[in-house]
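User: For my dataset I need records formatted as: sequence, then structure tokens, nothing else. Please produce one.
Assistant:
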Amino acid sequence: MDRRVVYFTAPGKVELREESLPALNADEVLVETHISAISAGTEVLVYRGQFPRDVIDSHDSLSSGLNYPLAYGYASVGRVTEIGASVPREWENRQVFAFQPHSSHFITTPNSLISIPELLSPENAVFLPNMETAVNLVQDAAPLIGERVLVLGQGILGLLTAALLHEFPLEYLAVADRFELRRKASLELGVNAALDPTFEDFRTLAIQSSAGMQHGFDLIIELSGNPSALDDAIALTVFSGRVVIGSWYGEKRASIDLGGKFHRSRIRLISSQVSSISPELSGRWDKPRRFEVAWNALKRIQPEKWITHKFPLEQAAQAYQLLDSSPELAIQIIFNYR
């Protein structure tokens, strides 16, 4: 049978291609995709050609390498429609999540699939990778009771992280994003303040946004995708505070001021990335445990409310063009295959 696959073919170029699928091996299954989610931060870098060819957050399913043409994506929800001879029959017709590029069908082994809990909609389940990343960020950040926290960037990852932090007994939780649509979504979560980082006096407003905050934040999580935001993070962090960097900047560069306040303030810059578990936790935590926490968080937070656009796969080029040219209009875009 044939399948349809989205390929990035050059900077700013996306094609939908048809490919033939091979016959199933005995240990494989065929999955029909129902929806897949665009990871805006990473995939826009791929769309623009701004990803380093030697380092990319790829998965084993990405066999097309690190150069164009590149099939990319890692958030697909579908149903197992065929199973190989040696695959247990309980896999047949199971609803599953997979770290797969945007494709109408794919063949894989059951150990590469994650069963979706009952009563969780596909539109919520497709957020699993971002929720796992948000859980990892909060674990690396290790917020303390009564702390003052700022999240820079309110794309999907920032919103999910803010939603998790809102469950903590913090003294104050603020967020910042340049787009009004995202700030509105943040305020609906119940954060204390949602600020525009493009304001000339943003740093002053951030510190003064809560009565009694004289110096800044104990913890800042940088998720804007803009490396220049690190200067704001450093300037707004108190003595011995932490800055957790969850953004992937690709080939984007910015000069960072590591003199002055940073040099004397013992500020810790912490790199956080979901492909591994912090060594401090790895004796007690593993991937299955973290996934279980992520599934439960998806049930509580119900992030499908942040899906702003649904495109058929045939309109993939329009979806990426929207994210590239008018990101202020979208929060989460998904492809609908049915």
